[in-house]
Amino acid sequence: MKMGTVKSGKRLYDINKHFFKKWSSRMAYILGFICADGNVHGRTLSWDLSDKYVSNMELLESFNMTMESNYPLSKGEGSYRLRISNRIILDDIKKLGIVPNKKKILIFPKVPKDYLRDFIRGFLDGDGWIVSRIRDNGGKEICVGFSNGSYGFMLKLAEALVSRLGLKGYNLRKREKKMKNGGMSCCYQLEYYSVNANKILEFLYDSLDSEDLMLGRKYEKMIEARKNFLDQERRNKVGRNFYDFEYKRKIDIVDFVKKCYWEDGLFPREIADKIGVSLSALYRFMDKFEIGKK
What we know:
This protein folds into two domains: 19-235, Roll (Endonuclease I-creI); 239-288, no CATH class. By secondary structure, the protein is α+β, with helices and mostly antiparallel strands. 46% of the residues lie in helices and 18% in strands. The protein has a four-stranded antiparallel β-sheet. Strands 5-6-8-7 form a four-stranded antiparallel β-sheet. The longest helix is centred in the last third of the chain and has 23 residues, at 216-238.
């Protein structure tokens, strides 16, 4: 559909005006991203994303391509901007809960089960975070979080994750921040750690293909977080000192101890000295992995 006419003096732009009429993985993702970082002003749907990251520009370009749009992507002061003016598009997203000044009244739409993960991934890319932290003791922690100004939306998001993934409850917290004008801003946050965080990442990112939408830098953070989760799971399983030895040597510590004991014929004391652990710690390790038992 072309917007504007030669008579009106406005440029003509094309877009698939029916894009939000039918659910698809890409439609669900973009709708989720609109819930987080989209704005509706009058008859215009717009995005203003920081120009600090090239991935923001790439994402908006993918929006244009997906919606068969040639609306211009512009560079403003500190941001990449995409603005779409189409009555049918605006009417359709309004029916899905996207209205002007939606910050505190946003509702969680009725997303079909098959597209829930795409919708939530879009929302995460706009108003969420994936964080990996190294604790003081060397342990690794991952966190997946979401934030929005609408309590109702966040409550439905939490319930959807519990229902779909079997997460054990949720902690929906209110956050207030004093603004420069002296007023207070309020938002609601959900955060998930460790096993729950990994379940969410598996749900949102497993088995994606080249047609699926995602924000590049969040995808990279997801890869890092899932690696750190697996590292921490391994650390918990074999023990910190054994894991450190395994990690530095790039070996499987269980196979290493088995080889030392069965093939090299070393005594437990000698194996413990090689690894740098106490003899009692080695005995517990060997007992756990049934090394030395016939």
